[in-house]
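Dissemination and training. As part of the outreach component of the grant, students in the summer workshop were shown how a complex can be specified as a set of sequence lines and then modelled as a single object. The example used during the hands-on session is reproduced here so that future cohorts can follow it. Participants entered these lines:
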Amino acid sequence: MSLTARLTILFAGVVALVLAGFSTLVFRETSAHFIELDRSLLMSKVHLVEEAVQASQTEDDLRRRLATSTHGHDGLYLRVSGHSGVLLEQGDLSMPDAVREGLETSLQGLAWRDTNGSLYAQRFVLDLGADAPGQISVTAAVDTSHHRHFLDDLTLKIAGYALVAVLAGTLLGWMASRGGLKPLTAMKARAERLSAQHLAERMPAESVPREMRELALSLNNMLDRLQADFERLSAFSSDLAHEMRTPVSNLLTAAQVTLAQQRTPQDYRSSLATISEELQRLARTISDMLLLAKTENLHELPLREPVDLVAEARSIVEFYEAVASEKYLTIGVDGVGEVAGDRLMIRRAISNLLSNAVRHADAGSTVSIVVRPSDTGVVLAVSNLGPHIPVASHQQLFDRFVRLSPGRSRDASEGVGLGLPITKAIMHAHHGEVTVRSADGVNTFALEFTTR
Amino acid sequence: MKILIIEDEAHTGEYLKQGLREAGYFCELARNGVDGLHEATEGDYGLVILDVMLPSIDGWSVLSSLRRKKSQLPVLYLTARDSVEDRVKGLELGADDYLIKPFSFSELLARIKTLLRRGGQIQDTTSLQIADLQLDLVRRRVTRSGRRVDLTAKEFGLLELFMRRRGEVLPRTLIASLVWDINFDSDSNVIDVAVRRLRAKIDDGFDTKLLQTVRGMGYVLDEPDH
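and obtained this result:
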């Protein structure tokens, strides 16, 4: 069921319930009041009878007094009976037999109603003192038809009013619900306009009521994240296509040139080896790109284990030992530090930084790896002596496929330029950062792990 | 030793078959999961190479059925999907090893040799020898023609790997993984430099060059006339 329908039904229900309660109350109070009026009228008659009884010496005297004092009322019935029988019976009301019988056994007031009319009757027993010759009981009834008519009329009017009020309430409730839900309709319209091409559309967080602002803001945050991820993905595919074009074109050329004429087996072998090497580079580019895409989209590490940064750094240093000795480099590892993370990823990040440091270090210098605690966690810093990196290009270093000198072609050892972006993504997955500093001829790349 | 290749992609299957035949293995090729499972159960194979992306019944089903029937048969699976779940799934289902496409053929060959060697003779040797090159595993000493060769710890490890896998072309990634525990793509140049330095120590000054480069594939240690 729609929200509007639910709210409307709820609204109508509340109106009906309130009116029903109120009407019942009014009806009951009015009826009670009328009965009270009828009773006091009957009581006044009984008092007259009582006075007459007090004043009379004999029954005849009493009959006379009663006849003079109690006549002259419309819609009234009165019967006085003593031990010797009926003393007085007067009135223009006909007493139904059922009422008579009811009054014989009870002293309670009795409201009677049939198609001819309605009446209120009660029997009273006069208290005449201990020395009185006998009991005198007075049966009195009053015609209540006009009260009855009034109440019937009231009921009808209240019912009519309630019906109109419920209908009006339903209508108002429907209008209010629709009006109240209008911001939702607006948000729905926005949502419908969203697509891969129009990811910039946002929910109208400012114009919606306060209760919906939270929702709108959450949706907008979700859209921000989606848009960022989507843009990364698009950039990824276009980068991938672009980066693969060159090696594929090289491969095609190499293969077709080789096939263009008869060659010696050595030549064929050499061509195939070239092709194989180029293909290995291509395969590596693809797996690096995939790794980067996967790591960038990794918001939480699947598993964390304690990783001793110094031990891992020493192990990676062994890998670069041969390359370092070629350049007469010394690599030093110092400090102490442990983090919770993905060991393979951290090894890869250290390896990427060390690879860069060894490649760019001045021959004969020292590359140092220092692990130390920081204000927020643990830092692993790799420093080397080398050419200054201008601050302006610091951020670019971490972009995909960026080389600092655009004209320069990449040598085979340099890989595809994804080392630092991958390192950055790995650090993000660890809720850390990779930072760069270049001053006084020393370039320092640092993995900053946040542990507290 | 017979190897069964279960691979639906025609080119891949044919190349693998040709490559493995030329490497000295008898090979059969099954083009779908049903045939492959039948062949693997009925035939006498020493190893199965299984592509997990197969039509009709997929590689995972083949693998689990095969494990129920022949639990000892080594299985190496190939996958193009490099996700952790995929890798874990294959190993949990009882595969012995896996390779992610694209892989290099020399890598595949090296893995196959490892799998076939497993369970066979575990050499508990104290020394290794190729031609006049001798490696003493106990004292961790290397001599060539009786002359002592000084190696660093990792160079010793590298040479030991080459000698244990004499005649096998070892791809750079495998070397990085086995010697330095670098299980990710890294600078291939680092391996080249390390091998070049090792070669300088063991081959320089000798007419017989033992450590050979196989261009486009990797490195191999062997006597040249073999």
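Residues 127-221 of chain B form a domain with the Arc Repressor Mutant, subunit A fold (CATH 1.10.10.10). Students were then asked to discuss how this feature might be tested experimentally.
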